[in-house]
Amino acid sequence: MAVIDIAIIGAGPYGLSLAAHLGRTRRSFRIFGEPMKFWSEHMPRGMRLKSEGFASNLSDPNAEFPLEAFCRERGIDYADVGLPVALDTFIAYGTEFQHRYVPGLENVQVVGLTHSPAGFELSTSSGEVLQARRVVVAIGIGRFASLPHTLENMPASLVTHSSAHSDLQSFKNRQVVVLGAGASALDIAALLIEAGASVELIARTDTLRFHDPPREPRPLLERLREPRSGLGTGWRSRLSCDLPTAFHLLPESIRLRAVARHLGPAPCWFTRDAVVGRMPMHLGATLLDAQIVNNRIQVSFKQREERQSIEADHLIAATGFKVAISRLEFMHDSLLKRIRCVSDTPILRRRFESSVPGLHFVGVVAANSFGPLFRFAFGADYVAKRLGCHLATV
Ligand SMILES: Cc1cc2nc3c(=O)[nH]c(=O)nc-3n(C[C@H](O)[C@H](O)[C@H](O)COP(=O)(O)OP(=O)(O)OC[C@H]3O[C@@H](n4cnc5c(N)ncnc54)[C@H](O)[C@@H]3O)c2cc1C
User: Fold this and answer.
1) Average pLDDT in the 365-373 region?
2) Whole-model pTM?
3) C-alpha 39 to ligand 1 mean position (Å)
């Protein structure tokens, strides 16, 4: 069996950007996955991106096809800052990027990954088994959806995670409880209202902290105090974007705290008008339990020391994601055991390499090692250039 140099698992912004750069090298590689699947199947249609236009690019070797170029070609309004990018536009851009720069993408899932004398053995959903010297895991966040324990065993007809939805039209005329106070929760609530659902929000936080709309141009002093970056304004975000290698050198405890605390899930300025005053919001509320009553969901929560309950046709938990590589069922146990981890995330060396030589992790799984930049598409350029360059030479 022929052994390829590199296998990339996942075809989102990270996998596609890296593949585009590897296409320019002499390395033999294959990339597996459905292009932009997380964005097209696990985010609600009608959503707009949180990242600004200039921070929503995939990375090609000549830097000739940023989102701006795609929008120009298609006659879509575009601005570097201040004009939210429609989800549909971003999906169409990623798909076009794949056609142009990664035409060899194989639209199959990797269902098995283990060691082999050559390095690694992968099996795919089409039944093929192949060998690769190196593997780059670029699987994004979709596999790590996190539900509160109380909701874990509820039927999907009554309780779902926010990432289970791309089309909210089926909730027309239905009562829906949305749990959470982040961007996903408020986006979903806004789109449910637009679809004709009756929505109530339950959130732990006492106040919703919407991001402010970006202001451009900004006075010099403000630009110095709060420099702009692909992750927003402020020095922490700026340093995360410019110096991921320095971040990697920080002590582990500092890195973990920084990644957990930096850029909480605040909702965007552009959803404020669509939700404030348009639905009951139970803020400062702690979820207690949930029960099925007459085929509906009854949710109980504590608010100001009082127990309250509401009933609805469905509950959507916009309760985020928690990376846990032990949940990667396609990885063989013997391989998983060899990956040194902290908080169930791989401890990565330089070049995004895990403790298993030749096994690399990029995107959100790399954030605890290299910083918050890698929770966003903006980090794909760094990975494609740095890791692409390294893989071309090893
Ligand atoms: C609601 C929501 C909104 C967001 N908005 C933004 C935003 O505005 N801007 C931003 O930068 N980031 C945003 N993010 C974060 C976003 O998830 C990451 O930026 C982005 O997905 C990173 O790209 P990726 O390539 O790492 O992952 P993904 O885009 O998730 O791509 C990974 C791909 O790998 C595939 N895959 C997984 N397992 C396998 C397998 N075994 N075999 C083959 N393929 C596999 C998945 O199906 C997926 O398509 C948002 C996240 C959420 C949940």
Assistant:
1) 98
2) 0.97
3) 7
